[in-house]
Structure formats: C-alpha cells, structure tokens
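Blinded run. Sample ID left blank on purpose so nobody reads anything into the name before looking at the predicted structure. Input follows.
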Amino acid sequence: MTTLRKTYAQHRQELLGRYPDGLAPAGIAVDDIIQLKLQNTFSTHLDIAREMAGVMRADMAAYDADSAQFTQSLGCWSGFHAQQMIKSVKRLRGTTKGAYVYLSGWMVAGLRNRFGHLPDQSMHDKTSVVDLIEEIYVSLRQADEVAINDLFKALKTARDVGDQVAEKTAIAAIDTFETHVVPIIADIDAGFGNENATYILAKEMIKAGACCLQIENQVSDAKQCGHQDGKVTVPREDFIEKLRACRLAFEELGVDEGVIVARTDSLGAGLTQKIPVSQAPGDLASDYIKWLKTEAITVDNPILPGELAIYLDGRFEKPVRMPNGLFAFQEGTGRARVIEDCIASLTQGGADLLWIETDTPNVDEIASMVSEIRKVVPNAKLTYNNSPSFNWTLNLRRQVRDQWIAEGKIHKDSYPEGNTLMSAEFDASDLGQETDARLAAFQADIAARAGVFHNLITLPTFHLTAKSMDELSRGYFGPDRMKAYVNTVQREEIRRGVSAVKHQHEVGSDLGDTFKEMVAGERALKAGGHANTMNQFAAE
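Blinded prediction complete.
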C-alpha cells in the first residue's frame, strides 16, 4: 500500500532552503512543520479516491497473474470499526496490502441513518452513505496521524539522548510508513432513483473518497436485500445506463481508474418491472424478454380487456402479470439470466467486476456460472458476498454429507438429515472437522475456481457488536461484574497488543500534546503527564 510521498530528508532540505536557521516565522521549528506535512497523508478525499483506484487496479492485475492474490474486506458501519480492522490487519501481516473496507447499504439502512433502524430497501437517506465514507476515511487518516506522531516522538527522544543509530532507525520508519488508508467498496444500492440521481449520488460518494462503487440491477424504488424475497430486476438497457452514470461520475472527477462492480440479483429474482422494446432478434431486450413466463392465447384463455400480448416464437402470448403489474419470469431461469446479465454488464456496460448474489455458499454453483461467463469475457472477475445471511455451518455440513454419501464414504444414516446437523455434538466429528477445513479454505477455493478477486463479509460488525455486547452484558450484569469486563475485554486487549487499550492515545491525546508543544513549548498544558492513568499500560 501507499507510503509517504516525500522522505523526511527531502522535506527537511526543502524547508531549510527557505529557513536556513531551522526556524520558520514566529519561531516554529522546521521539524514540526515536517511532522505535520507527513501526518497529512492525503490532501483531500478525492485524492484518496484517485490513489486507491490505482491500488485496486494493481491488485486486480496481480490476481489475474495469480489467483492466490485475492483481496478481502469486512463490512464496517463506523469509522472506528474500519480503523480497528485495518490496524489489526497491519499488526497481523505487517502490511495492509489486500485489505479493503466494505461499506454496506444494509448496515447504513439498519444502523446509520436518521430514520431509525430500517430494512435494506433503499429507504434510508442518501447522504448517510456519503457521510459514512467520509467518516471512515477521517478515522483511517487519524490512525496515520497518531502512528506518525509516535514515530516523531521516537525521533525526538533519540536526538535528545544523542543516539544516532536510533535516530536513523526512526527516520527510516517515518520514510517507510504505510498508510492505514485502503480502498472502500461502497454500496450505492440500485442508484436511489433514475440514472441522473445515480450520477449525482455517485459523484458525492467519490468526492468522499470511494474509488469503487457497487450497484445492483434491481428496481430502485422496489429494492430488496439480496437475501430477501420479492426482488424485481430491470431490463439490461436500464442497468447499463446506471453503469454509465457511475463511469461518467468517475471520469468527471478525474478518477480515471475508478472501479465499478455490477451486481446481479437475477438468481433469486422472479419478477421484472417492465418489458423492454426489442429492435432486432438477439438484442438485449429480446434476450431479456425470452425468459418471461407466458400463457398461450386460446379460446379458453382469451385476451381480456386491459391485458397485454407479446409476439414470441411466431405467435402472440400473454405474459404472466402479477396483481401489482409486475411480470413474472419462468421458473428455473435465474442461472441463465445471471450469465447474460454479467456478460452484458462487462461487454456493454463497462463494468470492471461482477457480483453474483447467491442463496447458498456453493463453490461449484458459482464456478459453473463463471465458466460460462468466461467463454465470452475470459478475464471476468467477481466480488463475492460471504454473507451472514447464509447458515454457513448447516450449508457446508449438508454439502459434505451429500458428497460423502454420493462417494460411498458414508451411509445416509451416518449423519441426520435436516437442521439437526447444526448440533454441537457434530463439532468434533469427522463431518464437523471436514466442514471447518472447508470453511477455512472457502475463500481461497472460490478465488481459484470461480474467479473471485474480492471476498467480503457484508455485515460482520453488526453481528460482532451484538454478540460482544451480549457476552459482556451477561457477565457484567450477572455475578461476575468487573471480572466480566476485565476477562472478556481488557485482559485480551493487553495480551493481543490491541492499541485501543490505551483509549486516550487511540483518539489522539498524545497527538494533541505534541501540537501544544509545537506552539507553546514549555508553557503547554499537556494531558500525557505522570498523572495520566494510561501510563499503567506503557509496558504493553
């Protein structure tokens, strides 16, 4: 990921050229100016969008060369969640490379809008999405500021004691510092209106820092969560216009490498809003219309006043129309429609990545669809939702059971059918252990076999927050009281090296002290003195 653009030495040489005595007007030290310049890792959030688009493009090229180089993200509903995730990745891997943030429309609707806790049906205010992108990048940039401030404190300490080796080490750490800022894949739902509304919102999201927009082919005013029933798709021409709107927004703002993810909900969508007009056999409209559910017009089933007829395969037929005016697709055509959707989005809509919303986590199913798509677009790549809407344990245990029965490895009575497979009694069984092994390998398998460049979990921080608060509350309001907090939270923070255990430092208290010293010197009233209780964690 991105490191600082100018080195410490370059900044110092430039500033000393203006201020040879090492002091700017009002007696401001050159090193203080350097620190503030380096802490400000990006001038604007539009600069973030431009740079992170390049990061994503480089990652996509790396994946094309080696499918093991897939990327990952977790859905975050606050800047703090995103910041702590990226800090954890950096602590674990030593780099943030390959880690993104996913911004879920579901979580904005459910947790981050003025209208209350709402379902994922585009009912939340549009500005909430933009605000969350802005907030996430403010938090990630503050993580940069706090970390660089710590490096400059180490540099100052080394100079104060005359340790030249430590001084060089500190400068090297400053020069090679890797930003916490990473790409955001931002959910724009179905565009929140017509193509012009999509364009306007896309611009605001990009200006807030989004380098990647994910948009779906549902009807905007009837949008449903991809894992709910009642989904209604739009004709492919309509969706392509939304993709063009997003591309124009990127181009206008100079984010030339902006990434668009075209999501299709056709696998689970049995309805369409309207019948497009076909101009010639084999065009987008005719390929969409052919999947409509129709009825033959006969003496016993005549056209009635107010009904519609369409000409298909040399005869007029009645499309099946629901009481609300929507049209039904033929049962069992979702897979074929998904493949056609994806090809159209890539070849005519200019999309960069695909998103196929599925009802179960099945590598074989997704791989078979991608294989068909790649016959037309060989380098087609996907973003895949490792959704909490799936019962992962039950789905994969069933898959293992069915496979083993088919292979003759077990008898069908070896393990029960149905939901009882969820029972904890199977956790240590051969089936349970094989399931856990497949869970651990799932993302690598789907990246290798199904063209998945990016694996994400949409709602993990929603569920994690609920679970963690339940865990703490059960103990704290029960007999354990403070023991519950210490054992489940603080002791683990300390032992894992989670920086948030020093919560004052985490939110910039030391950063504030440093700035006070810059402008007030010895007169500075600092928070980080000997009486600061955060010193109890200094050894950790």
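Unblinding after everyone has recorded impressions. The longest helix spans residues 127-161.
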